[in-house]
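Ticket #4471: complex job returned nothing on first submit. Input attached below:
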Amino acid sequence: MNARVGIVAVCCLALVSACASTALVPVTDPGFNAFESDEMVLWARSAEQARRINESGFLYDNKELEAYVNSVARKLQPPRVYERVPFTVKVLRDPYLNAFALANGAVYLHTGILASMENEAQLATLLGHEMTHATNRHSIKQSRDIKNTVAVMSGLLLATGGLAGVFGPVARASVYGYSRDYEREADTEGFRLTVQAGYDPAESLKLFEQMKREIEEEQIKEPFFFGTHPRVMERIESYNALNATRSGKERTNATNAEVFQGHIKKLVLDNAQLDLQTGRYERAASALQRYINRYPTEAGAYYLLGEANRQQGDSDHDKKAEESYQKALSLDANHYESHKMLGIMRFKAGDKAAAKEHLEKYLALNTKAADRAYVGKYIKACEQGAPQK
Amino acid sequence: MRKWIIVLLAFVTGCAVWHQTDGTFSGADYTLDLPKGWMVTNDPKNLRITRDGTALQQILVFIGDIAEQDKNAKKKLKKGMLPQEVAESILDRMRSDKSLIQFTVVENEPALIGGEEGFRLVCTYTKGKVRYRTIYYGMLRGEKFYRISYSAPIRYYFDKDVASFEEIVKSLKLVEEKKPAVLQQQVS
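Support reply: We reran it on our side without changes. The output follows.
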């Protein structure tokens, strides 16, 4: 009995002495006055983190696309909100399905998540969700939640003699990602913003259904929020419920699919290259096939599809790779990268004449080839008659 | 002073046992000439060499089965790859490594390693707040991957020991395989 009283007493002391309020109004609320002091510290840290990200070399360098995603963000929140949270949206060169917002309104979208979208309404859904994390002050709330949990846990640990294992899961749940409640709040408010801006609300759900399909079909196991099956399932449930509660009176049906696809056209190819870089060949191939269905006469897309097959390194994929390179050359006879890869494949197969022809064309068409020394060796080996191994 | 470096290296690198070189090193698959007085670990499959500490200059020699060295990599090396294909694959891994900030490839050329066809990469990147340069020689030989690389901060340290490194590479002699070895794949 005495032990129980002791535990309760220590917990109460911890709560009274250390817990900070998480009842903070959103910056969009008329009752909002000013950011709190610990929040300003968090903003300063966010600014430093954003600076590091921006200088890391991982930003996707496409000013036009950056201006476009920021213009979509501006449709979601009025200037008076921007005065409080100066949102800036940037794109990160990263093929994984993710997006995140820092406390100070710096929003980052991975090329991987943009490449998997179909239209502007889906982009608005994602931006609305992320921007809500900032306007509704989820970072500082979560930070305080963790501190409060730690304060309570410290009390409990003292009182129970350090049974850390019992409380481990509680701490982990607080540390990784926003809580379900904050995510659901971001879904709800983000959805409202998307509809208010005139976008088709059905696309919000489609975004996450598309992600779910990708995760399942390609067995994606990513560490990021939008790349995990349970989290995407939560979003689907959430947006299903939001769609069901719509009055049906809204006449919002904008998707701006063509505008969006025009802006991400180059990004889709660049992201496929990033997928290849990380060895995600099937994902790259499926994105490239979708691209080819939309733009069937682009040699560069066929070349990359060839790479997605060749890099898998087995005879079935090699055959498909050769077909793709040949298709690229049928569309553009001067596509030197396809000449190079066909040359290398023929070289490895021992077909010296064809290898030499393609490799010489490659060097003739690409006078600044950085790999001239390698290719020169292959040509020399072809002339000497012995394929290099 | 040397004793303190040994103690510090043992502390920083965990379990690795360091000793001073006497000028040569012999593993199951290779021999190397090393500058006398430098510090070296005692694992021939995963050899680390330094003079002033691994943060200031580090030479790595990894030799092992392709499959084993690839076990944590999504992008796999495959037997029969050309040196250029291997080099591109290694570069792709480095480009995807988020700990290598402002990663830049300075050179990617064919090279001979122990008399065999391979490649030589030169790249720069920032780790922590320090800008590094790495020279990376690599090759496939049958089922095995060979790597010998040198990394050091660009400011002051890199130039100081690059000639010693190139001499070490030149001294590499490959011997016939006796038993499987383990190889790790790291950047620095």
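The longest strand of chain A covers residues 88-92. Closing as resolved unless it happens again.
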